[in-house]
Design a protein that fits this description.
11 helices; alpha/beta; 7-stranded mixed beta sheet
Length: 375
């Protein structure tokens, strides 16, 4: 991002103007925040946003047009494939866009770039088809195929957050970089600033075996212990695409009189998390906080309202990395953490070819916040 010039006998470093952001309409507000944050980080007042047109025909087909040159630019395409609020008119009725259509629009942008950019990075905070990350029997392997498609189209890097299974990057082991970031620091920073509790009496709990690595990461940041629930499922039945849970078995330190943080990557109906919170309360937990990076809430809002009134949990912390229903934002038990500055820092260092390591762990900062809160 720099080149050197000798002016008046001295060497000066000149920064190239090569960064451009293409923000899809499904994440417009968040993308504008990212742009403003990059401006603040660099002490500049210019915008990096590239205007585009997302055109949808009445039969459901679409196209994308880029309205500004991106020749020899370092282009970052930001898209929220989980935004179900986007609609268009198709054959006379209102149709809601699904993840498949959002992902296709990303590919349309890449095709519109037509190889003119110096590099293309796709930013999908919620990775497309991330729950279909492995094959069981005769079923599709959607996430690996999607990642491979982007590689074939010439994408240099994928940036995502708290991906369901980080091993999906093995689908592209050579020519494309796969950057998976955790918003843990941002979430814990707001959690510590907002909550008044005994942080020495804190315990992190994983709701299942799949979220254990995530729980360990949180526990490490907080210098505390970790526990885990194991879901015993009825393998003879399938309900809503899953084997129903028969029993939650707990393994770990005694939760009696502890303040608990239950962490997971995404909340769909949230029934599993509420069951875990209820089990913790039965075991004598003092306070229970739920943390989910992506609050999808395909259903279950009423269950959370009921559980909150009954004192089963105290607060749900999530991020604004994917679309949040406006009704959800009004709930007393809901708080969303703004991660736009975090993404801005990631884009800033990658564009300048700097190390991302300082962004991967903020343990010292978190422990300092706790100590300051105690004082």
């Amino acid at each position: 991002c720099w080149f050197f010039m000798f002016l008046g006998g001295s060497m000066q470093i000149i920064e190239n103007d090569d960064l451009r952001l293409i923000v899809m309409s499904n994440i417009k507000e968040f993308g504008e925040k990212v742009n403003n944050s990059i401006e603040n980080l660099r002490g500049e007042t210019k915008s990096y946003l590239v205007p585009i047109e997302e055109i949808r025909f009445n039969n459901g087909e679409g196209k994308v047009k880029i309205c500004e040159t991106i020749r020899n630019k370092d282009v970052y395409i930001i898209s929220d494939v989980g935004n179900h609020s986007m609609t268009y008119n198709m054959f006379g009725y209102e149709n809601h866009m699904g993840p498949d259509e959002h992902f296709m629009d990303i590919k349309r942008v890449i095709l519109a770039i037509s190889g003119q950019a110096s590099s293309i990075t796709v930013v999908m905070p919620l990775l497309y088809e991330s729950r279909q990350h492995r094959r069981k029997g005769r079923e599709s392997l959607d996430c690996a195929l999607a990642v491979k498609e982007l590689e074939i189209l010439g994408v240099k890097t994928i940036i995502t957050f708290d991906v369901h299974d980080p091993n999906i990057q093995n689908a592209v082991p050579t020519s494309m970089s796969f950057e998976n970031f955790y918003p843990t620091h941002s979430i814990l920073k707001d959690f510590i600033e907002r909550e008044t509790l005994d942080f020495e009496n804190l315990l992190v709990v994983s709701p299942d075996t799949g979220a254990m690595d995530r729980a360990i990461y949180y526990a490490n940041m907080l210098n505390t212990d970790v526990g885990m629930f194991y879901k015993r499922r009825d393998l003879t039945k399938v309900v809503n695409g899953k084997n129903p849970i028969v029993q939650h078995e707990y393994m770990g330190k005694d939760v009696k009189d502890k303040n608990i943080i239950v962490v997971d990557d995404m909340i769909a109906s949230g029934s599993s998390m509420l069951e875990v919170a209820s089990e913790l309360k039965k075991r004598g937990a003092k306070k229970v906080y739920l943390v989910g990076t992506f609050s999808l809430f395909t259903s279950g809002l009423q269950n959370f309202d009921k559980a909150y009134k009954e004192g089963i949990f105290d607060m749900l912390y999530t991020t604004n990395l994917t679309y949040i229903n406006p009704k959800l934002k009004k709930k007393k038990w809901f708080y969303d953490v703004d991660c736009s500055m975090f993404l801005a820092k990631i884009i800033n260092v990658l564009n300048r070819h700097q190390s991302v390591s300082p962004l991967l762990n903020g343990k010292e900062d978190i422990l300092k916040l706790i100590n300051d809160k105690k004082k």
